[in-house]
C-alpha cells in the first residue's frame, strides 16, 4: 500500500468509515505483531499493548497531520507501550517460595480472630445485663492499669473487704450467662 493510499484510508477512517478501519487493521496488524514480539512480552501482554496502540490511534486519528505516516506513528506508539510494560515487569518482584525460608512464617489465624470477636461481643452483652454498680466494679478491676482496692472503694463507696468476694460472684455469674449462650469464655477469677 502506498503512502497516498494509506493517507486516504486514514482520512476515511477519521470520518467514521468502518471499511477503512478494517483495511488499516488488516494491513498494519502483521507489522504490529512483529514489533510487539521483539519485546519478550507474553502473548496476552503483547495483544494488550497492540490494542492500546490502536485505541490511541482511534483517539488521535483526527489530529494526525500526515495520514501517510500512520504506520510509523503506530509503530512508535506500540514501542513506547511495550517498553512501559517491560519496565513495569522489571520492577515487579518474584513471589518468594516459602518452602525455602528457614524462618517461621506467621500466618494470621482468622478463625481465632473471629471467635475472639464473637466472645467479646457476647461478654459485652452479658455485662449489659448486670446492674450499673457491678459493671462499674468489673470495669475498674480490669482497667489497665487497674486502680487499687482503696481507690475502687472510695470511688464506688463500697467496703474494701467486699470487693474481692463481689468480683468472684460477678465472674461466676458472667461465666454462667456465657455458657448458656454459646462457647465457654475463659474469665479469670
Protein described:
- The chain is mostly helical and 189 residues long.
- It is built from 8 helices and no strands.
- The longest helix is centred in the middle third of the chain and has 22 residues, at 70-91.
- The chain starts with a helix and ends in an 8-residue tail after the last helix.
Task: List the keywords.
single chain; 189 residues; mainly alpha; 8 helices; 69% helix; 0% strand; rod-shaped
In a few lines, what is going on in this structure?
With 189 residues, the protein is mainly alpha-helical.
**Poorly predicted regions:** none
Class from secondary-structure proportions: mainly alpha
Radius of gyration: 37 Å
Shape: rod-shaped
Rounded mean pLDDT is 83
Order of helices and strands: HHHHHHHH
Beta strand %: under 5%
Kindly, what is the distance between the CA atoms of the first and last residues, rounded to a whole number of angstroms? 91 Å
Number of helices: 8
Q: Major beta sheet, specifics?
A: none
Number of strands: 0
Percentage of helical residues? 55-70%
Element layout with pairings:
Elements (H helix, E strand, L loop, with lengths): L2 H12 L3 H20 L5 H18 L9 H22 L18 H19 L3 H10 L7 H8 L3 H22 L8
Helix pairs in contact: 1-2, 2-3, 2-4, 3-4, 5-8, 6-8
Amino acid at each position: 500500500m502506498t503512502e497516498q493510499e494509506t493517507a486516504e484510508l486514514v482520512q476515511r477512517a477519521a470520518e467514521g468509515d468502518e471499511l477503512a478501519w478494517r483495511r488499516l487493521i488488516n494491513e498494519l496488524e502483521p507489522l504490529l505483531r512483529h514489533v510487539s514480539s521483539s519485546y519478550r512480552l507474553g502473548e496476552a501482554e503483547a495483544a494488550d499493548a497492540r490494542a492500546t496502540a490502536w485505541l490511541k490511534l482511534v483517539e488521535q486519528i483526527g489530529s494526525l497531520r500526515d495520514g501517510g505516516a500512520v504506520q510509523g506513528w503506530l509503530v512508535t506508539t506500540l514501542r513506547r507501550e511495550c517498553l512501559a510494560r517491560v519496565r513495569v515487569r522489571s520492577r515487579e518482584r518474584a513471589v518468594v517460595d516459602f518452602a525455602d525460608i528457614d524462618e517461621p512464617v506467621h500466618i494470621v489465624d482468622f478463625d481465632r480472630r473471629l471467635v475472639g470477636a464473637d466472645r467479646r461481643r457476647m461478654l459485652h452483652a452479658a455485662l449489659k445485663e448486670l446492674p450499673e454498680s457491678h459493671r462499674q466494679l468489673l470495669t475498674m478491676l480490669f482497667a489497665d492499669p487497674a486502680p487499687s482496692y482503696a481507690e475502687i472503694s472510695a470511688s464506688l463507696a463500697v467496703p474494701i473487704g467486699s470487693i474481692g468476694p463481689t468480683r468472684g460472684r460477678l465472674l461466676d455469674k458472667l461465666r454462667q450467662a456465657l455458657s448458656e449462650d454459646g462457647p465457654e469464655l475463659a474469665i479469670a477469677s
